[in-house]
Specification:
73% helix; globular; mainly alpha
């Protein structure tokens, strides 16, 4: 399809397949599809819980490996580790869950868990740039598609680095320590009766160190299944074109990004959809910055759930601190110097796209920073 077709609001199935979980399944009747999605949701939820419990059980076995071999023993190491880990698997949520299980098992301290979660979120935005590369390889406009990925990286990196400092201060002060939710005793008993036999069975046949790896593989599968059970809605059905006039309001896009991420519980889904929307001309780069900021606030919803499963009040505090600090930074930007910030971000993205040399420098930087942090 040529660039001249970009005004056509009906994307091809190949384009929709670039969005996680966006493969259409029209062979089944609507009611059967709905039932299948509900079943898939409960399967993914069950696997998520099992994965967290397995990772918690096996995390202690990695204490010496993480501290002595990988040298992850301070907040800067943890920041780089979480960042690179998210690059490697192209997802932040499993890495954030791993950070909580490491903290719960005493492998890393509270501040290191916080920075590892922050690193996981900065690394997770790389998936949008990756999808942009796929579109460019398919002959689409380089500036438009790479621009979305670069915006996701720049906005996420710039806001999270500021929130990192704020969150560190909040965490050290203990101001949020009193705000936590303990898991219900009945729920804990139910989970123990359901999952303990499974974990014991796995523990019988596999070494203790493998439980974390098995749990991590299962949590990747659970997120993949969850993406598949999200509503499949073609762009032409989404009525994006009818609401295009309101997206010029930054606060509207901020709430939209926060809302979509909250519902989907996946920042990869909510940000990745920007690439095809931009490619079809429904949304412009100027409107995307507040959307990304909003998505970065509510992306912690699945990590909050993981903290509750661990039944560790300080794990909940760590995630809450991450959420509060990025929310404060984003809202402060939105209502103070947003337009200056937006222009600065767009100028940086334009500079990176302008020449291949600039793109190479940018890519070198975003990989060099987390690698360098690992040596502190």
């Amino acid at each position: 399809m040529s660039l001249s077709d970009s005004s056509n609001p009906n994307p091809s199935s190949a384009e929709l397949s670039a969005i996680p979980g966006a493969q259409t399944r029209r062979a089944l009747p609507p009611l059967a599809r709905r039932g299948a999605k509900i079943l898939l949701f409960f399967i993914s939820l069950t696997l998520f819980i099992l994965a967290i419990l397995l990772m918690k059980e096996g995390a202690q076995s990695y204490s010496s490996f993480i501290r002595d071999s990988l040298k992850v023993d301070n907040p800067l190491n943890s920041l780089g580790f979480g960042w690179l880990f998210a690059y490697l698997i192209m997802s932040g949520s499993p890495v954030a869950a791993a950070a909580l299980t490491f903290f719960d098992s005493g492998v890393i301290d509270k501040l290191s868990a916080f920075t590892m979660i922050t690193g996981s979120r900065m690394g997770a935005s790389f998936i949008v740039l990756f999808i942009g590369f796929i579109y460019v390889l398919r002959g689409r406009d380089r500036g438009t598609n790479l621009g979305m990925g670069l915006l996701a990286l720049v906005v996420t990196g710039s806001t999270y680095l500021v929130s990192l400092a704020l969150g560190g201060v909040i965490l050290r002060s203990g101001r949020l320590d009193s705000i936590h939710f303990d898991s219900n005793i009945l729920v804990q008993s139910l989970m123990d009766s359901l999952f303990s036999p499974i974990i014991s069975g796995i523990d019988t046949y596999f070494p203790a160190w493998s439980l974390f790896i098995i749990g991590f593989i299962i949590i990747l599968l659970s997120f993949n299944l969850f993406d598949r059970c999200l509503p499949q809605m073609a762009i032409k059905e989404s009525r994006v074109g009818q609401v295009s006039r309101i997206v010029y309001q930054p606060w509207v896009m901020f709430l939209l990004g926060a809302g979509i991420t909250l519902i989907s519980m996946s920042v990869s889904v909510s940000l990745s959809i920007l690439v095809p929307l931009s490619n079809r001309g429904f949304i412009r780069r100027e409107n995307v910055v507040p959307y990304i900021m909003g998505a970065n606030v509510t992306t912690f919803i699945d990590t909050l759930f993981a903290a509750l499963l661990l039944n560790n009040p300080y794990a909940f505090t760590i995630v809450l601190t991450s959420m509060v600090s990025i929310a404060v930074v984003s809202i402060a930007l939105l209502f103070t110097i947003f337009h200056r910030y937006e222009r600065a971000v767009l100028r940086l993205v334009d500079w990176v796209i302008a020449e291949k040399r600039n793109m190479f420098i940018f890519m070198l930087i975003i990989f060099a920073i987390p690698i360098t942090l690992m040596f502190f």
